[in-house]
Design goal:
The protein has 245 residues and is α/β, with parallel strands linked by helices. It folds into two domains: 11-85; 96-243, Trna Endonuclease, Chain: A, domain 1 (3-Layer(aba) Sandwich). The protein has five helices and nine strands, in the order ααββββββαβββαα. The chain has helices at residues 11-47, 55-97, 162-180, 212-221, 228-243; strands at residues 105-111, 116-123, 126-132, 144-146, 151-153, 156-157, 188-192, 198-200, 208-210. The strands form two sheets. Strands 1-2-3-7-9 form a five-stranded mixed beta sheet, with helices on both faces. α1 (11-47) packs antiparallel against α2. It starts with 10 loop residues before the first helix and ends with a helix. Residues 1-5 have low confidence and may be disordered.
Length: 245
Amino acid sequence: MKKESLSQAGQSLNEKMYDVFIDKVLAPLAITLFVFYMAIVEWIRVFFNVPNSPWPYTIISIIVGIYCLIKVRHSLNDIKNLRLGRDGERLVGEALEELRMAGYRVYHDILSESFNIDHIIIGPAGVFTIETKTYRKRGKNPQIYYDGVKIEVNGVSSLKDPVKQAKGQMYWLEGFINDNAKIKVKVRPVVVFPGWFINQRDSNAEVWVLNEKALCVFLKNAEKSLNQEQINSIANHLENYIRNN
């Protein structure tokens, strides 16, 4: 039996983009075209002296058309934001792939019942969960500040708490490894902001906040904490989980 392939970076966001396009863009456009078609038919009847009134259909088509265009506009903004997130995950995924040469196993878009983990890496320096956050840069000197507790983007706290989110992923993965591989390992949660400069005030924080280049440089030079047997065991159990979920 052929094994299911592992997920690619940004795969779930790509699927969400497709769903948004089908449900919130294509469907409203189809409805709009239909009602305008009805209006055109009625006008044709008028020109050919067919006793019928096009005004009810025209009014309906205008109302429905305006409604659908508003829906499409909002949906296009959703797709734009999803595309930004997907591209960020892909950028980080490409950077992490370089770690394979240093003995790391790299996995993308791991789904659980209630959330997904953008990336997991398993290697000599340990096990790491990666939560990717992608923001558009604004201003002359855009920076991200991290004091070990909260993250601020250009002085504004993130609407979502990526630190709390990263810790949740850490606890889930530690439980998974302990239950399946029977190895007690401390998972390191990481929040990655691709392409950003990170001003970090607490180097001993439980959750790391880095850009993708800094993370890869650190892991390539980090001290070993797992042997090859442990790496293989954890990776094999995780791959089985990914292929069956």
